[in-house]
Amino acid sequence: MQVSSNIESWKIDTIKTLAQRGEGNRLEFKGILKHEATDDSTTSQSEWRHKLETEFTAFANAEGGTILFGITDSGKITGVPVPEERFNGFLNNLLSDVNPQLDLHTTEIPLPTDDEPPRVVLVVKVNEADTKPVQTSRASYYIRINESAQPMTRGMVQSTFLADEEQFSARRDLELRLEQYAAVYKDRFTDVDAASKSPPNFGEIQADALRDSITRFLRYGAYEPEAELMLKETLRVLDELDSLDERFHLYVRGDMIAFEYGRGEIADSSSDYKEINRRARDDLHQIADTLYHQIEPLADTDDLEFEA
After folding, report:
1. Cβ distance 136 to 52 under 8 Å?
2. Is 293 helix (H, G, I), strand (E, B) or coil?
3. pTM greater than 0.70
4. Most confident segment among 25-39, 192-206, 231-245, 246-260
């Protein structure tokens, strides 16, 4: 049976399938939801709570995972009683000292029994953290490896911090570049001066700097597929701009016959160059307009924050 990534669609048969498969690098079983103080218990409330923190943060520091409350380590489905407070509030209180806060999604799968109070399997999806590493209340770091949460080495923690800093830096640099271009576009490209005789100023767009920022963000950033597609299309538009820039300067130097801007021959008079300048300015404004409308929707995504 194939298990959907959407936990809201899970049924009791899904739980049975997962229980049979057993724990793994993306799946953890927990037989109980609350600490049970018994005479033979060797685990204190604080130790039990910290153990739970390690499981959650380990998934967040890796690629995410799912914790099923109400299934023992051996795969027996026992369920947990429904608490008086909502599960989300209960978990938030339990994990309140984890830093940064976790991104969790929960759902309840009722067991087909007549038990009172009713019992359920609580499904908690732990999403991979946007900001890593996530630490427990004791300022310790864990990562999911195979079937358990393992302490992160000093080197792992340092590299994770560095990666997160690089990710933040790449995102902020791109946000500034996009905001800068939006301002330049509104100031220089919204109105076309048809009477102007000057050559187009390709440098105003700062295509190389914008391309470098996008490339760096795509290398280090955490983003949704929609943003990735829009940024890759933006790179394509920048390539068109480079091609236009190169053609224009070849025409001006007389290295190419001016098929597009001239009259089928090398420009040899001031009137020819005026026509080349005019058409090149028109094309530049068209590309600048395309570029802006490609960038503008990025301001509405969750991946980037800038004023378009």
Report:
1. no
2. helix
3. no
4. 231-245
Same-domain pairing of 208 and 82? no
Give yes or no for a cis peptide into 112 (omega within 30° of 0): no
Q: Dmax over Cα atoms in the chain, in whole Å? A: 101
User: Is 286 part of a structural domain of the chain?
Assistant: yes
- Length of the chain (residues): 308
Q: Cα angle at 289 between 285 and 291, to 5 degrees? A: 115
Within a domain: residue 2?
no
Question: In terms of domains, do 163 and 135 share one?
Answer: no
Question: What gap in Å lies between CA 234 and CA 288, rounded to an integer?
Answer: 11
Q: What are the two backbone dihedrals, phi and then psi, of residue 262, each rounded to the nearest 5 degrees?
A: -95, -145
Tell me if 1 is assigned to some domain: no
Question: Which residue in 45, 52, 57, 54 sits closest to 69, CA to CA?
Answer: 52
Enclosing domain of residue 271: 159-300
The answer to whether 219 and 170 are in contact (CB under 8 A) is yes
Q: Helices in the chain by DSSP H: which ranges? A: 12-21, 45-61, 87-94, 154-184, 207-220, 225-253, 270-295
Say if residue 105 is in the same domain as residue 211. no
According to the 3-state scheme, what is the secondary structure of 81-100? Answer: ECCCCCHHHHHHHHCCCCEC
Instruction: For 40-91, write each residue's pLDDT tens digit.
Output: 556 788 888 999 999 999 999 999 999 999 999 999 999 998 876 678 888 8
